[in-house]
C-alpha cells in the first residue's frame, strides 16, 4: 500500500495540511506541538477510527484557545481524506466528523455531539461498508505490525512475538524422542505437556499429605489391649443365675400381681413410644430447617475464615510493598542528587585535561545516572501498581468479610429461633401416664408388703450377681469389636503405605514427563531460533535468557547481530524496519511506515515500503513537508 495524497482539515491542532506524496518517501518537519504526530493520528483515524494511542474518536475537534473543551458551533469540523494505491489499484477514503444540533424540542440550539460520515471514492457509505473496504486493504492488527517499527519489539508480549515467528518459520519437525512419544500415547504435545504439569502438581500435593494420613491412622491403634474373658464360662454363669431367679419367683404367691405390673409397664412403654413418635413427627420439619441453616452457617464461617486470612496476608504484602516503595524513592533521590566529581587535571603532569576528555567523562557519568534512575523509577512504578491492585483487592475482601459476618450472625439467630420452636418429648406430663404409673405404684407397694423379706434379699443378691455377669459379657463383646477394628486399622495403615509408594512412583513418572517436555520445548525454541534468524538481515532472536540461578527462562528477545539487547535509537529503528520487511514479505503486503522522532536517526533505512519521517525542527513553527522523489 502506498500513500498518494493526504488532506487534513480542522483535525485537532491542524487547521489545514496537504501532502502530495505520490507513493514517495515523505519528511515532515516542525516544532514540538506543530502537529507531526497529529498527522499520523489523522491517517490512522481515517483508516481505523483510532489514533496512535489506540483511542477511538478521541478529542478530534480543535479546542477553544486556552480551554479544554471542543470549539463547537464554529464550523470547525474535522475532515481527513487520503488517496491510496494497493496492488495497482487506487482508492480514495474520506471521513468527516460533523457536529449535530437538534432543530426542535428542549435541546434546540444545543450541541448534541458529532457523527462520523464515511466516503469511498467520493460516495458516502455506511460504516460497515467503509470498514470492509479498509479491511480489504490491510488487516488492522497486521497494519500495526508493518507500519510501526517499534510495535513488534516493544508492544507485543514475548509470547505474541514467538507465535508470529512460529508462523514465519513454518513447520519445524522437531523429534520429541522415542521415550516422550511413548508417554504421549497419541496426544498432542501441548495437551500432554499441560496434563503432565497438572498431574505432577496434583501428585506432589497428594504425596505431601500421605505422611500425615499414615501418622493419623497409626495413632488410632492402641498400644495395649484389655484381656479377653472366657465368654462361654460367662454365658453358663448367666444361665444358671437366671434359672435360680426364675425358680425363686415362681415359688411366690404374688405372681398375679407381678403379671399385672408387667402389663402396666408394657402399656407405659407403648404409650411413651407412640407419644414420642408424634412429637418427633411434628419436630421433623423444624429440625430439617435447622440442619439446613447449620450447613449454610458452616459454609459461610469457613469462607469467612478464608477471607480473613487473605486480608491479613494481603495487608502484610501491601505494607511490605509500601516500605520497599519508600526505599526506592529514597534511592531515586540519592541517585538524582548525585553530581559528577571527576578530576579535571592530569594526575601525572598536573596539567588541565582536554575539554573533550572532561566532557566525555561527565557525559558517561550522566548517562549512567540516567540509566540507574530509569531502573529505579520502573521498579517504583511496578510496586505502586502492585500496591494499588492489592488495595483494590483488600477493599473487595473487606466488603465480602462484612457481608459474610452479617450473614453468619443472621443464620445463628435463625437457628436459635428454630431450636426454641422444638417441642420436648415428656410423656410423663400426659394424663394417660399419670393414671398408669399411679396404678403401677400401688401394685408395687402391694407386692412389697406381701413379700417375704428374706426371699427379696436373696432375689436382690442374685439379680446383682446376674447384672455383673451380663456386664462382663457386654465388655467382652466390645473388646471383640475393638480387636477387629484394630486389625482393620493395621490393614489400612499398610494400604496407605503402599499407596504412598505408588504415588511416589507416579510422581517420578510425571516429573520425568515434565522434564522431557521442557527439554522438547527448548529444542523447539532452538530450532525456531535458528530457522527465524535466517529470515532477517539485522534482527536476531533468542528464545531463552540465562537466569542468576544458572537456569534458563523462556523468552523471545530481540537482539542485534553483535548479541546486544541494549540498542540505540537508530539500532532499534533499523531492527524494527528489518522485522517489518520480513513480515511484509511473509504476508504479501506493505504499508507506509511512520517514523516519529526521526531527527535523531542517522543510520541508513533499507526497505521497499514507503517511509514517512516525523522530525523535530526548531525553525519550523508550522509543518513543512518534503517529498523525496
From TrEMBL:
Gene3D superfamilies: 1.10.287.1490, P-loop containing nucleotide triphosphate hydrolases. This is Nuclease SbcCD subunit C. Residues 231-331, 394-499 form a coiled coil. Heterodimer of SbcC and SbcD. InterPro entries: P-loop_NTPase. Belongs to the SMC family. SbcC subfamily. It comes from the Bacteria. PROSITE patterns: S5A_REDUCTASE. The keyword Transcription regulation does not apply. Signal peptide: none annotated. Keywords: Coiled coil. SUPFAM superfamilies: P-loop containing nucleoside triphosphate hydrolases, Rad50 coiled-coil Zn hook.
Amino acid at each position: 500500500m502506498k500513500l498518494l495524497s493526504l488532506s487534513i482539515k480542522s483535525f485537532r491542532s491542524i487547521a489545514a495540511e496537504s501532502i502530495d506524496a505520490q507513493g514517495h518517501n515523505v519528511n515532515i518537519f516542525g516544532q514540538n506541538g506543530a502537529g507531526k504526530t497529529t498527522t499520523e493520528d489523522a491517517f490512522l483515524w481515517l483508516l481505523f477510527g483510532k489514533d496512535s494511542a489506540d483511542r477511538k474518536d478521541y478529542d478530534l475537534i480543535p479546542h477553544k484557545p486556552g480551554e479544554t473543551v471542543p470549539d463547537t458551533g464554529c464550523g470547525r469540523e474535522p475532515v481527513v481524506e487520503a488517496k491510496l494505491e494497493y496492488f495497482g489499484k487506487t482508492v480514495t477514503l474520506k471521513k468527516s466528523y460533523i457536529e449535530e444540533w437538534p432543530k426542535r424540542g428542549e435541546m434546540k440550539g444545543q450541541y448534541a455531539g458529532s457523527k462520523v460520515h464515511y466516503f469511498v471514492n467520493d460516495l458516502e457509505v455506511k460504516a460497515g461498508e467503509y470498514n470492509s473496504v479498509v479491511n480489504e486493504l490491510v488487516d488492522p492488527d497486521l497494519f500495526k505490525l508493518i507500519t510501526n517499527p517499534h510495535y513488534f519489539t516493544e508492544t507485543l508480549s514475548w509470547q505474541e512475538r514467538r507465535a508470529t515467528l512460529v508462523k514465519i518459520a513454518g513447520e519445524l519437525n522437531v523429534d520429541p524422542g522415542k521415550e516422550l512419544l511413548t508417554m504421549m500415547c497419541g496426544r498432542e504435545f501441548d495437551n500432554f505437556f499441560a496434563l503432565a504439569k497438572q498431574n505432577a502438581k496434583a501428585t506432589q500435593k497428594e504425596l505431601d499429605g500421605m505422611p500425615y494420613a499414615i501418622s493419623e491412622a497409626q495413632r488410632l491403634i492402641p498400644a495395649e489391649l484389655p484381656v479377653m474373658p472366657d465368654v462361654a464360662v460367662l454365658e453358663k454363669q448367666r444361665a444358671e443365675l437366671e434359672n435360680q431367679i426364675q425358680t425363686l419367683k415362681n415359688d411366690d404367691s404374688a405372681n398375679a400381681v407381678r403379671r399385672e405390673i408387667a402389663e402396666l409397664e408394657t402399656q407405659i412403654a407403648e404409650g411413651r413410644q407412640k407419644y414420642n413418635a408424634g412429637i418427633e413427627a411434628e419436630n421433623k420439619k423444624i429440625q430439617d430447617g435447622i440442619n439446613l441453616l447449620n450447613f449454610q452457617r458452616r459454609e459461610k464461617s469457613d469462607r469467612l475464615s478464608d477471607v480473613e486470612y487473605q486480608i491479613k496476608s494481603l495487608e502484610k504484602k501491601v505494607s511490605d510493598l509500601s516500605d520497599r516503595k519508600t526505599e526506592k524513592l529514597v534511592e531515586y533521590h540519592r541517585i538524582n542528587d548525585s553530581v559528577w566529581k571527576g578530576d579535571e587535571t592530569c594526575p601525572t603532569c598536573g596539567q588541565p585535561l582536554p575539554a573533550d576528555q572532561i566532557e566525555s567523562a561527565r557525559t558517561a557519568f550522566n548517562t549512567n545516572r540516567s540509566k540507574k534512575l530509569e531502573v529505579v523509577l520502573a521498579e517504583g512504578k511496578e510496586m505502586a501498581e502492585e500496591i494499588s491492585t492489592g488495595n483494590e483487592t483488600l477493599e473487595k475482601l473487606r466488603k465480602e468479610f462484612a457481608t459474610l459476618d452479617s450473614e453468619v450472625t443472621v443464620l445463628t439467630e435463625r437457628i436459635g429461633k428454630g431450636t426454641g420452636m422444638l417441642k420436648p418429648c415428656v410423656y410423663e406430663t400426659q394424663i394417660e401416664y399419670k393414671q398408669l404409673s399411679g396404678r403401677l405404684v400401688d401394685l408395687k407397694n402391694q407386692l412389697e408388703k406381701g413379700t417375704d423379706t428374706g426371699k427379696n434379699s436373696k432375689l436382690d443378691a442374685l439379680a446383682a450377681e446376674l447384672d455383673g455377669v451380663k456386664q462382663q459379657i457386654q465388655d467382652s463383646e466390645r473388646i471383640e469389636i475393638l480387636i477387629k477394628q484394630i486389625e482393620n486399622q493395621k490393614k489400612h495403615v499398610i494400604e496407605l503405605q503402599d499407596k504412598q509408594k505408588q504415588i511416589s512412583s507416579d510422581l517420578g513418572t510425571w516429573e520425568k514427563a515434565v522434564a522431557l517436555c521442557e527439554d522438547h520445548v527448548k529444542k523447539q525454541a532452538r530450532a525456531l531460533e535458528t530457522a527465524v534468524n535466517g529470515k532477517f538481515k539485522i534482527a536476531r532472536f533468542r528464545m531463552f535468557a540465562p537466569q542468576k540461578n544458572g537456569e534458563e527462562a523462556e523468552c523471545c528477545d530481540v537482539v542485534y547481530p553483535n548479541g546486544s539487547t541494549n540498542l540505540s535509537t537508530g539500532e532499534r529503528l533499523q531492527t524494527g524496519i528489518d522485522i517489518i520487511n520480513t513480515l511484509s514479505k511473509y504476508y504479501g503486503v506493505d504499508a507506509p511506515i511512520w517514523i516519529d522522532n526521526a531527527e535523531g536517526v542517522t543510520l541508513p533505512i533499507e526497505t521497499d515500503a514507503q517511509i514517512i519521517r516525523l522530525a523535530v525542527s526548531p525553525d519550523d513553527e508550522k509543518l513543512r513537508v518534503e517529498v523525496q522523489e
